[in-house]
Amino acid sequence: MNRGKLAVLAMLLLGVGLAAFALWWNVTSGRRTLEYWGREGGARIIDEKATVELLWLAPAADGEEGEQFSIGQRDYTVTSRVDVTGTRGLVHARHSLLEDASFEWDAAATEGNYTLAARFRDASGTTTVAFDFAREQLAYVESGQERKAAAKIVAGWNTFAQRHSPRKEGSESKQK
User: Fold this and answer.
1) pTM for the full model?
2) What DSSP assignment string belongs to the chain?
3) Fewer CB within 10 Å: C terminus or N terminus of the chain?
């Protein structure tokens, strides 16, 4: 075999090796989050065709009307909403929810005081993620699970939400 054929063979083997490493890395870097969100929940979060809304929350008062849901032992009312489907930065925000490094798996979550939720909706259902920015945690509303999150991820979602806030003049998104 001449040197040219050896070089091509070496490049092919290197390419296969790197592809195998990339596959292994992607599978192992999201294993715990896949367990947390479940197959459908995780797929809905990353699906670019899913409708994504930011929902601003307040503690629900007795007899209050409007959309409400429970997280832990508390009820919340949606005070305003913004459709952020397709907005700048959403791809990165979605991806952050699917990385194992975005969560503090060994830290216990406390009962949260959630002020924002991101709702991912497609034809098969809904995945809602609520954020407690003060305690740096999030909740998977449909499953009732609360989890400590990495400070960087919570701060990133807070910045993303502020950029699209309906209370901010010149918001990039339209309030529904």
Assistant:
1) 0.79
2) --HHHHHHHHHHHHHHHHHHHHHHHHHHHTHHHHHHHHHHHHHHHH-TTSEEEEEEEEEPPTT--S-EEEETTEEEEEEEEEE-TT-TTHHHHHHHTT-GGGB-TTSPP------EEEEEEETTEEEEEEEETTTTEEEETTTTEEEEB-HHHHHHHHHHHHHT-TTSTT-SS-B-
3) N
